Input
Amino acid sequence: MRLTTSAKQSLIGAAVIGCLFAIFAAIAAACFDSEYGSHIYTSSHWSLSTIIVAHTIVIFVEVAGSIFVIFGIVPVCVSWLIARKNRSDNA
Output
């Protein structure tokens, strides 16, 4: 399967927007954990800085990945399936 130019643009755009939103979400998660983490994670055997870093990375990956899949991969797959169906109907 070859990607068309519009599919490549959709994937790149979704990746860029996903990373931008993920950066904001990760910063917000780090700020929240640094402010309230000492109250929330009192019984944890991990240090608070380790929890903040891990939570920030997880939030970044979750947000960037979900936006990339929802706004990048799903539309490209739907477009490909519609084009494939139209080709089989015309053949």
Q: What stands out?
A: The chain has one domain: 7-90. The chain has a mean pLDDT of 91. The two ends are 19 Å apart (CA to CA).
